[in-house]
Design a protein that fits this description.
single chain; 337 residues; mainly alpha; 3 domains
């Protein structure tokens, strides 16, 4: 992330390009949709009164009967943008992981030799889009399910809120876990040229075999993301605090700048986490080797005293008593320890 910021910039480039297309298309949709709404002279008169009740009645009358057309347009737009995201995301993910692989292996030619099955990456992107759509439908379904708990005859708002919160947490956690597996599986598609299903299985095996490393990566990068979010929410309070003093455009510009910086940091963290998973697969492990204890005969080193060597008192004793038994040699019959 620090030595090669080009990887993070590449991630920002493709993500923000798709995001810019999304927001521009939505803005164009809203403008064109509003142009198609007929406004009668009576409704225009009610809007000019600036009375909340009359204005609300006028707005309801203007939008009446146009919800179906808006929903159809949103469905078509969401489908086309999802297809664009799937294709662009697969190409960008292949390029970034290939570059990371060449960086870790120290061989720029690795990028040219690596053949990436794009259909596998497209399959992973399709699954990610499918679970995102399922999560969105699940979020909408929680409203209806929670409202069924608290009825007009038996109102229990506390139980309804508890059910709603539990379902939201369950759906969000399930989406996060599945999205994580699909994102890690992209590494196996590029590195080992696996298909979609085999790459997902390899991601599960990685989590099972290298649980400690995977948990450490998720923990540290998760903490980094949390710190970035806390810092961003704290900094964004400064321009909002001057809302009554500064012009509205300046306040909104400050909020937008902080938001963009937060998303940029999140993209850099995402690339860093992806590189960490890639490092687990490509870099060799270096476990600590245990040296066996040597088995050797006792040898003398400088500074050690030879117990078999005669000292002055032994020489004098043998000279005065020639028939005395000699001193026993301690290492004469010594075997291996």
């Amino acid at each position: 992330m620090v030595r090669e910021p080009s990887f993070g910039l590449a991630e920002i480039a493709w993500r923000w390009s798709v995001g810019a297309v999304l927001w521009l298309t939505l803005a164009y949709l809203v403008v064109e949709y509003l142009r198609t709404l007929p406004v009668s002279s009576a409704e225009l008169l009610l809007l000019r009164t600036r009375q909340p009740v009359l204005v609300a009645d006028a707005i309801a009358s203007i939008f009446r009967g146009s919800a179906a057309r808006l929903i159809e347009t949103l469905v078509v737009l969401a489908t086309l943008l999802t297809i664009a995201w799937i294709v662009v995301g697969a190409l960008a993910r292949a390029a970034i992981i290939k570059s990371l692989l060449g960086y870790f292996r120290g061989d720029a030619a690795t990028e040219k030799r690596c053949r990436v099955p794009l259909h596998s990456l497209v399959g992973l992107s399709v699954y990610r889009a499918a679970i995102t759509a399922a999560a969105a439908v699940g979020f909408l379904g929680t409203f209806f399910f929670a409202s069924a708990v608290s009825t007009a005859s038996n109102p229990t708002p506390g139980s309804a809120f508890l059910v709603f919160l539990s379902l939201i947490l369950f759906i969000g956690l399930s989406w996060s876990v599945l999205n994580w597996f699909f994102s890690v599986a992209a590494v196996f598609v590029v590195v080992e040229s696996q298909n979609t299903f085999k790459a997902i299985g390899s991601a599960v095996d990685l989590c099972r075999k290298r649980t400690g490393s995977v948990f450490a990566i998720g923990t540290w990068f998760g903490l980094g993301h949390l710190v970035a979010f806390v810092v961003a929410t704290s900094v964004v309070a400064f321009p909002l605090g001057f809302a009554g003093i500064l012009p509205l455009g300046v306040v909104l510009g400050g909020v937008l700048l902080v938001t963009l910086l937060y998303f940029a940091g999140a993209d850099f963290l995402y690339v860093g986490r992806l590189a960490a998973y890639l490092a687990i697969l490509t870099l060799p492990e270096t476990p600590a080797s245990v040296q066996p204890l040597p088995t050797y005969l006792p040898t003398l080193h400088p500074g050690m005293v030879d117990q078999a060597e005669l000292i002055l008192s032994d020489v004098l004793a043998q000279a005065s008593h020639p028939d005395a038994p000699k001193r026993e040699e301690p290492y004469e019959n010594a075997g291996p320890l």
